[in-house]
Amino acid sequence: MTIIRKLKYVSVILLMFCFTVTASAENRDFFQEQMETTGANDLFDNLTDEQKEMLEELGITKLTPEAFLSVSPRKVFDLFYRILMNEYKSPLSYTVTVSVMIVAVSVVTQFMSHGDKISRMISVFSLICISLCMIVPLGECLSRVISAIRLSADFMLMLIPVLATALTVSGNPATALTYNSLCFGAAQIVVAFSADFIRPLIQTTLSFSIMGGLSDLVNFEKIIQFVKRFTVFLMSFTSTVFITMLSIKGMLSASADTVAVRGVRFMIGNLIPVVGGAVSDAYTSISGTLLLVKNTVAVLGIAVVALLNVPVMVECICWVFSFACISTVSEMFSQNKTASFIRAVSSCVVMMTVMLLFVVIVFILSVGLVMLMKGG
Question: Do the beta carbons of residue 152 and residue 363 sit within 8 Å?
Fold first, then answer.
């Protein structure tokens, strides 16, 4: 009897294992089918070669949950290190060049015996050289910032319909409608706000910085600091309002979706005779797979938005650090006018960095909120 009982246990375990493997294979096939249906695979295939290369460095070669789970901190660190090695060269070269120029001007002016007029001419000439050296790289940096914002917005315009479809099939139709309308508008507004308002404001502020550095009659440093604080406040306030609206409307829509989904489960379980409970359980299993589809697409969106903006953000941070070093050197050698000029230019780069960070936070948080929405 004991042997027969053991054989029964082994048979039951084998049957359970076989059914589990079969169910897992069916869930995997259903997952891939839904990835095709929602357009997630097309979204992944339409990524640029540069974006795919960066994802491959992280070990993401296909759009599956296993690929994202295989990403290790070491791969992220290696990618960040490569980006840093590519972006620090121009700011470092500028820092060394300008620092040497400041030291040379300071030494020359110490030995001048012709009065303040010639010393002032040398200081103005050095400021002109410093300005000419920074115009091209800072202009390129600003263009890269605007380009990264446009690329992020274009990607969001492709991602939002896919996420809305995934939300709908995973049991959140009301949430999908809310998310689709709000995020489509946000993507359009962010591009217009950055390109048509913030970019001209930064260019104007940079012009004021150069004018203030070359003239003793006006000092724009306080005005520039005010513009920087106003810009930071405006973007912080805007992002807070948008995320708050999306969160509140998302929670209300999710509540409506939860009521609808639970009603469907109740009707299935009670109105279908004999197999109603089994059908309800199957519906729950399918909802779990669809939830996995939605979260996989959301993680892809977060990864791509981050990879689009991190290189440019690293360059902006390198420039801020570069200007901080140059300002310190200027103050060490009593070049206060140069230090004031560098601080004003640094404020412009800070505004560029905050603008980019504003876009990243709005897009990533709007996608991240999707991962928190469940279909009842």
Answer: yes
What is the average pLDDT score of the chain?
A: 75
The string of DSSP letters for 169-216 reads HTT-HHHHHHHHHHHHHHHHHHHHHIIIIIHHHHHHHHHHHHHHHH-S
Q: What is the pLDDT of residues 204-257, one digit of tens each?
A: 887 777 777 666 666 677 787 888 888 888 888 887 887 777 777 767 666 665
Q: Is residue 216 part of a domain?
A: yes
> Does residue 94 lie within any of the structural domains?
no
253 assigned to some structural domain: yes
Contact 343, 221 (CB under 8 A): yes
- Asked, for residue 299, whether it belongs to a domain, the answer is yes
User: How far apart (Å, rounded) are the C-alpha atoms in residues 244 and 93?
Assistant: 43
**Single-letter residue type at 297:** V
| Cβ within 8 Å of residue 359, ≥6 positions away | 148, 149, 152, 153, 190, 194, 309
Q: Supply the range of the domain harboring residue 187.
A: 139-371
At 322-354, the pLDDT tens digits run 989 988 888 888 777 788 888 888 888 888 888
Cα of 5 vs its chain's centroid, Å: 59
Cα separation of 63 and 59, whole Å?
11
Q: Give the total number of structural domains in the chain.
A: 1
